[in-house]
Amino acid sequence: MPNKITIDAVEILKDRIAQDPELAYFVEEERKRLMLADKIRQARQESGLSQKEVAQRIGTTQSAVARLESGNYERLSLSTLIKVTRALNRRINLEILPA
User: Fold this and answer.
1) How far is CA 27 from the centre of its chain?
2) For 9-86, CATH number?
3) I need a labelling partner for 13 at 20 to 30 A (CA). Which of 19, 60, 62, 75 fits?
4) pLDDT tens profile 59-78
């Protein structure tokens, strides 16, 4: 039976990810970063604080907080994450799992 040809970009991407472990790892890491960014944004909104207020509490700029919330922040340290969660009156729950 001939290979099925698709023009569906999502299906093409899924196929490439399935065939390339390095790409799959990269995609999963990006997904995790975006999920964390979304959790930070949700926590800030639930706390009723603006990005500027969070920035003032942790000693940074509003634009830095915006980058954290967008997932466009390559060097997010645990120290910064702790500052943000404290400013939002939250705590962190981490898990270390087998690869």
Assistant:
1) 12
2) 1.10.260.40
3) 75
4) 999 999 999 999 888 788 99
